[in-house]
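New to this. Please check this record:
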Amino acid sequence: MNKFKNNKQFIARGRFSRIYRADPIDGSRAVALKVTYPDDERAPHNSRAELKLLRNLATPNSSNVITVQDGFSDHDEDGEPILIQVLPLLEYTLGAVLAAHRKPVVGLWGSESSSSSSSASLVSGWKNRLPGDFALDILQGLFSGLAYIHSQGIIHRDIKPDNLLFIATDRNASGGGGVDSSNSSSEWPRVVIADFGIAWTPPDNHGKEPAQNKVTDVGTGVFRSPQLLFGQASYGFDVDVWAAACVGAQLYSIDGLPLFANREESDGGSGGGGGGEYRSDLALIACIFETLGAPTADSWPEGQTIDSLMHMDFSRLPVPKPFSTFVPRAPKTIAQRIRAGLEYSPAVRPSSKQFFS
């Protein structure tokens, strides 16, 4: 830690990590320090493996993946062993950007008529103002980054707005989430995928997770795929595609909240993209089925082996709305691609490389 001045500033906290802003003593640009306690981590969290992975990913093809600048072991003030990753200081997450472009909906007699807002916007009380060309740029960068890490056999397992950061210039950084809505598309900051702390690497995640028996308690809330929610341990890159498609739906939603968010509990904040969480996986599963329709033997043949799914009664599920109503700001082709990424059957979802091909 003697490489940095004694003016470190706390930025954020993860389950097993803390992020600080730090100034190198050589006067170079400020950096972010990710500090973990490897001996206290619980699987699948593994910061040592994360550091090795990021070093291996640092190639000219990794422009949409965060770059680790350095990494070393040290001890904290109490003498406890810690691992420090030195990362570029990227202050703006997609969660913060979405929050900055999420504006309150004015009521019936306000300046904005409620007739111009969807029911989702009225329920949540928010309206999405993210520029469409910026949304497309983010989605393309996200899938480009995923295609690269998937080509290396890596499954990220926690794609969500708060794990997507931006490399911004002084021109497009601002106090409200780091994005100036007046920018032209050529000036949008580049999105990078961060936080590989629970990533799976082949062939068996350092001897801890066989490919056919992976940990299913991964991912975050409303971005978790049905396979994870039902405990199917043989999943692959498709769980990242599902989560990325959820991010895509959020980018083009009417209210800027996650597709499967509990809108009645949403506060519009930046955490996780601003959407309210559910009290149980079962409630989230119900929301997914209500949004996309009940799975069938044709739409999810792999699900026919899930005993709990086979005992569910779908007779009271409402007829799902056309998917375009959930992403009204998306061009037709983009809406179709996002919907394809949310197919129940992993075999039918496009790969990250195919998503924009």
